[in-house]
């Protein structure tokens, strides 16, 4: 296979750009072969690059194969983590070690044809993140549709190929999103929710022989994924306005309890309906108390946010353009912008 140079990324200084490739190897014994298929393309880039490979200490065969690759591949660095904190946790660790202006995530098995990586670098121009959509990969299926609907419900955004783990993004995107400590499948939709420009690139799936991981139903794992999605929904939507979240729950409970209590008291005062054997009164009063407590939690959250409002940045300026009467130029940003 012939190396194909990537076109220089417009709007960026090519000499200053560097690429960090991050891979988390959990259980694939042939991970070294999968990563090696991308070397020709990576060596043909117009960017200097590094590969950070986080490995599970239990994957001894994969670790041995990767160790052999490092002998004649100086850009490859292998990290053996003990204990293994899961693929998502190890990728988050790799993001912190990455030094490149661009970060490319690859799975431990090939998901797309190696030459298709060039399309990602072409598409990153003017964008913050490029995700892959495999055009000859079956996009349908119950799991895919369920994930897409869940993402659209929680975050208002989704991608065509939810389970494709190949994506290229700018480093500052991961620096902000990494603070959420989320699963990697959530990264594109979270980036879109935070206002970053996310685009898709149609690519061809890997056509060679590959033993991709099979779907295994794990009730607790899927339940944790649901809790992660709910947590992210609350954080992204109501982090700076906690009273809106707690109020939307507590106010209906309070109103139902108040209306029911008023109806019981009206019956007792004007219709001579006894309340001594009516447990509904206790239940309605408890609803009032519960509603007040939930609303009070929101008020406490508002006080905490207000007291720390000077240290909390609710937005980030992506670009500042100013003219001098003749031409317009982009002003370098600072941390205070």
UniProtKB/TrEMBL annotation:
Alphabetical UniProt keywords: Membrane, Transferase, Transmembrane, Transmembrane helix
TM stretches of this protein: 251-270, 282-306
One example GO MF annotation: transferase activity
Organism domain of life: Bacteria
Coiled coil: none
GO cellular component terms, A-Z: plasma membrane
PANTHER family: UNDECAPRENYL-PHOSPHATE 4-DEOXY-4-FORMAMIDO-L-ARABINOSE TRANSFERASE (PTHR48090:SF3), UNDECAPRENYL-PHOSPHATE 4-DEOXY-4-FORMAMIDO-L-ARABINOSE TRANSFERASE-RELATED (PTHR48090)
UniProt name for this protein: Glycosyl transferase family 2
Annotated organism of origin: Pseudooceanicola lipolyticus
């Amino acid at each position: 296979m012939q190396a194909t140079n990537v076109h220089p990324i417009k709007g960026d200084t090519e000499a200053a750009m560097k690429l960090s490739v991050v891979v988390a190897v959990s259980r694939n014994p042939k991970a070294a072969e999968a990563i090696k298929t991308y070397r020709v393309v990576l060596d043909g880039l117009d960017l200097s690059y590094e590969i950070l490979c986080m490995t599970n200490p239990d994957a001894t065969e994969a670790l041995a194969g990767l160790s052999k690759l490092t002998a004649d591949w100086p850009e490859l660095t292998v990290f053996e983590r003990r204990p293994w904190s899961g693929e998502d946790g190890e990728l988050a660790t790799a993001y912190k070690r990455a030094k490149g202006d661009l970060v490319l995530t690859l799975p431990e098995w090939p998901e797309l044809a190696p030459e298709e990586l060039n399309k990602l670098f072409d598409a990153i121009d003017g964008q913050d993140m490029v995700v892959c959509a495999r055009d000859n990969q079956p996009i349908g299926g119950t799991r895919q549709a369920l994930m897409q609907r869940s993402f659209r419900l929680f975050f208002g955004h989704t991608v065509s190929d939810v389970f494709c783990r190949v994506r290229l993004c700018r480093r500052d995107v991961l620096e902000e999103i990494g603070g959420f400590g989320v699963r990697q499948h959530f990264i594109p939709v979270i980036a879109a929710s935070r206002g970053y420009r996310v685009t898709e690139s149609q690519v061809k799936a890997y056509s060679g022989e590959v033993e991709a991981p099979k779907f295994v139903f794990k009730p607790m794992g899927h339940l944790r994924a649901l809790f992660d999605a709910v947590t992210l929904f609350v954080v992204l939507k109501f982090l700076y306005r906690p009273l809106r979240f707690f109020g939307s729950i507590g106010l209906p409970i309070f109103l139902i309890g108040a209306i029911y209590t008023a109806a019981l008291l009206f019956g007792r005062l004007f219709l001579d309906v006894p309340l001594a054997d009516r447990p509904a009164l206790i239940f309605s009063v408890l609803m009032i108390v519960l509603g007040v407590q939930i609303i009070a939690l929101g008020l406490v959250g508002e006080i905490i946010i207000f007291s720390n409002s000077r240290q909390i940045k609710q937005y980030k300026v992506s670009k500042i353009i100013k003219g001098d009467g003749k031409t317009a130029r982009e002003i370098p940003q600072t941390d205070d912008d």
